[in-house]
């Protein structure tokens, strides 16, 4: 009895949603080894994209959103499918013509898409998040494959016409970029998954990472999460780490907040809520400092240039900044890699990577119940599941007022620039613990920030 | 008894759908005098468009297609509506933000839209067509207002997301341009109407006019129709008048057929059928000949230049011709006014005005029954109501093969151009009844056509 209880405990500990890890470390999803799932997915995508390519391009029609194409992959192969080493399976492609249109919109060529996803083994991410989804990353760091529940896949399909409208009007958006929706069917099981853009480049060290909703109720990373090598922190942690928020220049701040507001309006129109902003911070100041100390760690800490296939996929491209991203890149020592330049209030130079995630949970489907339940145990204003309009409003206010702060423009400076520089130097010369104060007085000269580290 | 029968007969003859004409010639629609309807519509549109203008422009959301705004117009006026001389009424605007987006797409400014529709009385068209709808034409010839049935209005609202998609991908289309959908409510009656582009400019004399479906079953204008001053002919009449079709240069032919095919694909995707091509022909050769005879009739027969407010609204703009419309205009003596240049096989120079009409009859709503019924009495291939795919295929084949013909390009000419010119002149000099023969031999030199009139 006791042994059985322990065994149950172990099983329970290693199971999250449909994801299980056995004693030997093998990961399964719906009892299917994820290594087999990965290979089958690669076969399926290869066939689906390859089969679509020769078909002449034409306009997307409204009916294209409802189309589901299905290919059977017998183990021994068929006229149209190769032989393989796994169980027979069926591979379904949702709305193939519509997703081809989306990929086109982001400048993703079929051959590049195939090369990224099917040419080399995918990397399985070890941290499955709260949902128990499986995440794969393409070898070139461009795409994320994520398993989704049936209701999420259904909701995405319903969302497609509105998603199309939004992308047409705004290819620049922080909403997830969906490049495909598929279903792997085998032995009575359906494993649905989406292909998305990768928000946090692997080649960039994220000195901290946040999942932010604009709520305070239970929005603190657990002790278990904090113990991880790369924890994902939450709203309350952010307020603790950055009580003064992150400082952006006026143009970038406006562009970013405008984009968040527009994205929230779209989400609200679909009654979507409970979404988060995933925010990764690269601290250039810390990275450069550690380089100075140990040059052999250079390659791990400082940004490495990578080529991004998809357009509008970086945070900098996603926001509607009037500033030319290239000129910003040049100003910022060409080390942004699509991140948004910022400063912390202590003068550290930051590069921000971000995007809105988890949008496929419709309010109508399951959230009403959750809200009703949580309302009983907490004040309605602070729980993270609330009416979509309220949720959107709170989300955008949180980012406009708490997370991001606008650096005053030079014109609104209370002292001439040169005077501030002198003041800063004076502060420093007096060995005054000045960094925060002088950055507040003069964030533009940068002397204090550079001299004070 | 006899008098009563006669009276019934008179009433029956003067009623078509909801449209009635009484003994004094007053036209009513759902028992509402159309003069009152027109004034109320102008009040309603003025208020609706005027109220929308100050609202800041924003992206169209999917939810915008379902919005219906309602304003009450009491006779004595209110804070937001003027006093008027008619019965109290309510005015509903469907999807105001979505239609504003469509008007923007066609370059129609709110103030121009208001000026066209509300500044001067509308012209009521006397020929109501088969549906018994009321048609008003704006004084500047730009817009048509047409009453529609409830199921047509409902269908248009359902169509809007797909319509949006099509316009985004192809502002150049021969499909109707919908600029607004409204409903006038008074005394328990609902009168719904749409605002569309006007296909046939009033300032252009249409020497013949066709409603073409690509079907032959009962597709001949009635004797009653033929007796009218400006009859609308049908498919069988066209084949009789133009057995050799209408000749277009290769580029124009390709662009036109490509546009028809794309439009048919959209209609088919919505299971729409029973639509027609409205085709107006202005015969420049005849017009110029009559000018030569009676110069006082010049203004009535030859094209008058007009300024078109809406973009992509003329037939020439609607087709995806690679040829610059302006250069075509210059070539064709600047007298096209957005019409498409063509020739008849007897060498007459024609200008074509066209567009697809009557698309708001969904297959699912009422056509299935009609098809089942008509199948019993006629061969399925020839009746005009058939499955949408078949309908679309037959429609586009009809235009590609019977209505329009491609003039062979110069390169494929069997004789050098100069030789053809000499041959033509020789035919003419010999007073041979040559026009058809020489145009067939050399449609490019145009000498015969110009010299032979």
Automatic annotation (TrEMBL), chains A, B:
<keyword id="KW-0808">Transferase</keyword>
<keyword id="KW-0067">ATP-binding</keyword>
<dbReference type="InterPro" id="IPR027483">
    <property type="entry name" value="PInositol-4-P-4/5-kinase_C_sf"/>
</dbReference>
<keyword id="KW-0963">Cytoplasm</keyword>
<dbReference type="GO" id="GO:0005524">
    <property type="term" value="F:ATP binding"/>
</dbReference>
<dbReference type="InterPro" id="IPR027484">
    <property type="entry name" value="PInositol-4-P-5-kinase_N"/>
</dbReference>
<keyword id="KW-0418">Kinase</keyword>
<dbReference type="GO" id="GO:0016308">
    <property type="term" value="F:1-phosphatidylinositol-4-phosphate 5-kinase activity"/>
</dbReference>
<dbReference type="GO" id="GO:0005737">
    <property type="term" value="C:cytoplasm"/>
</dbReference>
<feature type="domain" description="PIPK">
    <location>
        <begin position="33"/>
        <end position="403"/>
    </location>
</feature>
<protein>
    <recommendedName>
        <fullName>PIPK domain-containing protein</fullName>
    </recommendedName>
</protein>
<keyword id="KW-0547">Nucleotide-binding</keyword>
<dbReference type="Pfam" id="PF01504">
    <property type="entry name" value="PIP5K"/>
</dbReference>
<dbReference type="GO" id="GO:0046854">
    <property type="term" value="P:phosphatidylinositol phosphate biosynthetic process"/>
</dbReference>
<dbReference type="InterPro" id="IPR023610">
    <property type="entry name" value="PInositol-4/5-P-5/4-kinase"/>
</dbReference>
<dbReference type="GO" id="GO:0005886">
    <property type="term" value="C:plasma membrane"/>
</dbReference>
<dbReference type="InterPro" id="IPR002498">
    <property type="entry name" value="PInositol-4-P-4/5-kinase_core"/>
</dbReference>
